[in-house]
Design a protein that fits this description.
This protein is of the alpha+beta class and about 675 residues long. It folds into 4 domains: about 1-80 and about 80-125 and about 335-350, Nucleotidyltransferase, domain 5 (2-Layer Sandwich), CATH 3.30.420; about 185-335, Nucleotidyltransferase, domain 5 (2-Layer Sandwich); about 370-570, Carbamoyltransferase, C-terminal domain (DHBP synthase, Alpha-Beta Complex), CATH 3.90.870; about 580-670. It contains 22 helices and 28 strands. An 8-stranded mixed beta sheet has the order 13-23-22-14-15-21-16-20, with helices on both faces. The protein has a 5-stranded mixed beta sheet with strand order 3-2-1-4-5, sandwiched between helices. A hairpin with a 2-residue loop joins strand 2 and strand 3 (about 35-40). The longest helix has 29 residues, at about 270-295. This is Nodulation protein. InterPro entries: ATPase_NBD (IPR043129), Carbam_trans_C (IPR031730), Carbam_trans_C_sf (IPR038152), Carbtransf_dom (IPR003696), NodU/CmcH_Carbamoyltrnsfr (IPR051338). Belongs to the NodU/CmcH family.
């Protein structure tokens, strides 16, 4: 029995999406008889971070992995309820009175008819938003029974209410709800609305978690205490707009006379604000979890929902020793709802519930054979040099030991937001300078941001304070302390507070990555690598060989390794791209406009993001010359188009092209 699970929006990348950020992180998961065959987020294929597009590419990928057609799928499970589908269908009538009211099943099936020309309404299974989060965790925890806590921004309950969380007890295939947390008490929104005061917004929550250890959590504790109230039985209240409320309290301080803007320097007050906010969130989470642990008596805990990505808070739960073990769904955000909906449908239709531990997350795109990789590399040979090496793990370990920062692309890509050794940037974990170099020159992001250590599982308790062993450790879901004697030695992965977001690596789940770390251990005496996701600051984690080449060429990484091939860039990248094709990414379009100057109105040319501005910068102003090139026939090289259009390929124009490629607004491709 094949079941396709979806987290889906109704948008497509070539038109404006009125849903804003709703239904973000669209994804598809395919089960066969309850086993995960494939799982991927649409962003990995569309190359638009957090996108809420209908996941047509992700669906196609899943079907290809099983070598089946959509008609072979028995059920399609959706991460929303029948009530919610009917509500969304009714909105169309309100906007256009001529529109026929569709049933919930017809509405849910409409995108499949548009993209796949198949009527699937009889295959639809609905699963309400928070219940999908529950089911994403419980069958994969390995626990026969557990307390389940789901916390996020918000989502529809399935009966007209908006919720921000769900608490219950899971025993075998049954889930009994203990509490529904209404949207007005959303901890996800409490955090998001607070971080706006320090220059961050939706999808930036993890950045503030990383900033918090630089601050004093006591400095603004009193002010934050005005924004929440703990109540009996795990209940609480929070302010509906904490950012504004905090600004009103802190307005007299010079640092908060106006909110910090993105790109401005962080003051100590901003860091203290982040620390106080993080401490407040932890206090609220622990209040919920402790109460329901005591009332339920459960000794195991499952966590899901976007708030469960707060690894620091997860670590505090572990340190409390309330539970014998906890499991955090690695794809705790909404993309994980696709997995949860599929597992819910499998249990509903097969009546065969089983719980077993999630062993890995390598369910995405697999890199091709070495022969195919070499063919792809040949197309880029004017920009890169490459060679095949064996064993590649030994060669890579030596490069890292010699000080190189490498990109490592192997096997199938990971499902979820973490790079776990298949699409990773890797470096020596010892020199603190590696952290600064990657932040500044590779990721091009804030210098305070920490990096995770990948440690061989058999050595993990030697280097880190692991009070409770959990398979969640292999998914970078928990913050633990680095042992005192190694904090200085492991300067690149030890955060300012002496902690690290650990990933344990075992030979069974990722043998090639385990072998690489083992080889590095033989050379350095350290069974650990610095690991961060392979992408720059505007794109999702790379997925394909082509993504890897583009990201490598537009960052300052030293070496790229794909399969058994070691790749280096050639000099004169800017001039050499003239021999490649150029085109807009599918989610962008050319635009002309007018702006007022002292001399009157003048036209300007730009590239616009066609969908919601929540997912990418909306407008990029470009030169007239580049506009003409992009409007021309993209089957030809940049140099050929410039010659035909009588445009001089100046260094400024080539740098403009390179910059937009780095921003992933355009594609540069071999002819």
């Amino acid at each position: 029995m094949y079941i396709l699970g979806l987290q889906t929006g109704a948008g497509i990348e070539t038109r404006f999406n009125r849903d804003g950020f709703s239904n973000h992180d669209s994804a598809a998961v395919l089960l066969k008889d309850g086993e995960i065959i494939a799982a991927i987020e649409e962003e990995r294929l569309s190359r638009v971070k957090h996108c809420n597009f209908f996941p047509r590419r992700a669906i196609e990928f899943c079907l290809q992995q099983a070598n089946i057609c959509l008609s072979d799928v028995d059920y399609i499970a959706l991460n929303y309820s029948e009530y919610d589908a009917h509500s969304m269908a009714s909105l169309g009538v309100l906007e256009d009175a001529k529109t026929k009211v569709a049933s919930a099943h017809e509405f849910a099936a409409s995108e499949f008819m548009q993209f796949f020309a198949q009527d699937v309404k009889d295959k639809i299974v609905f699963c309400s938003h928070h219940l999908a989060h529950v089911w994403s965790a419980t069958p994969l925890s390995g626990f026969d029974e557990s307390l389940v806590v789901v916390l996020d921004g918000n989502g529809p309950s399935g009966d007209g209410k908006m919720l921000s969380g769900l608490v219950g007890v899971h025993k075998n295939s049954e889930f009994n709800t203990l509490a529904e947390i209404p949207a007005k008490k959303s901890l996800g929104h409490f955090y998001i609305r607070s971080i706006r005061l320090v220059g961050y917004n939706r999808f930036d929550e993890y950045k503030v978690m990383g900033l918090a250890p630089y601050g004093d959590p006591n400095r603004f504790a009193k002010e934050f205490q005005q924004l929440y109230r703990l109540k009996d039985q795990g209940d609480y209240d929070v302010h509906h707009n904490p950012g504004v409320a905090m600004w009103q309290q802190l307005y007299s301080l010079p640092e908060f006379s106006s909110p910090r803007r993105k790109g401005e320097e962080f003051t100590q007050a901003h860091k203290d604000f982040a620390a106080s906010l993080q401490a407040t969130l932890e206090k609220l989470i622990l209040h919920i979890v402790e109460n329901y642990q005591q009332s339920s008596g459960m000794k195991y805990l499952c966590l899901a929902g976007g708030v469960a990505h707060n690894c620091t808070a997860n670590g505090k739960i572990v340190s409390s020793k309330m539970f014998d073990e906890i499991f955090v769904q690695p794809a705790a955000h909404d993309a994980g709802g696709a997995l949860g909906a599929a597992l819910y449908a499998h249990n509903l239709k097969s009546k065969q519930f089983q719980t077993k531990r999630l062993e890995h997350l390598f369910y995405g795109t697999e890199i091709p054979s070495n022969e195919v990789i070499e063919d792809k590399l040949k197309d880029w040979s004017s920009l890169i040099s490459y060679k095949k090496v064996s064993p590649v793990t030994e060669h890579a370990a030596q490069l890292i030991a010699d000080g190189s920062i490498i990109a490592w692309v192997q096997g199938r890509s990971e499902f979820g937001p973490r790079a776990l050794g298949s699409r990773s940037i890797l470096a020596d974990p010892r020199p603190a300078s590696n952290r600064d170099k990657i932040n500044k020159m590779v990721k091009k992001r804030e210098g305070y941001r920490p990096f995770a250590p990948s440690v061989l599982e058999e050595y993990s308790q030697e280097y880190f304070e692991i009070e409770q062993f959990s398979n969640s450790l292999q998914f970078m879901n928990l913050i633990v302390s680095v042992k005192e004697e190694y904090k200085e030695k492991l300067g690149a992965i030890t955060h300012v507070d002496g902690t690290a977001r650990i990933q344990t690596v075992n030979k069974n789940s990722n043998s090639r990555y385990w072998e690489l770390i083992s080889k590095f251990n033989e050379l350095s005496g350290v069974p650990i690598l610095l690991n961060t996701s392979f992408n720059n600051n505007v794109e999702p984690i790379v997925d394909s060989v082509e993504d890897a080449i583009a990201s490598y060429l537009t960052t300052d990484l030293d070496i790229l390794i794909v399969g058994d091939y070691v790749i280096e860039r050639k000099p004169e990248l800017t001039n050499n791209i003239a021999n490649f094709q150029i085109r807009l990414r599918e989610s962008y379009k050319l635009s002309k406009g007018f702006k007022q100057t002292n001399q009157g109105f003048e036209t300007f040319k730009s590239i616009e993001f066609a969908s919601s501005g929540f997912f990418a910068k909306q407008t990029h102003t470009i030169s007239n010359e580049l506009f003409e090139i992009l409007a021309a026939d993209n089957r030809y090289s940049i140099a050929h188009l410039a010659d035909q259009l009588r445009i001089e390929l100046t260094s400024e124009l080539l740098l403009e092209i390179l910059n937009l490629w780095e921003l992933r607004v355009i594609q540069i491709m071999p002819k």
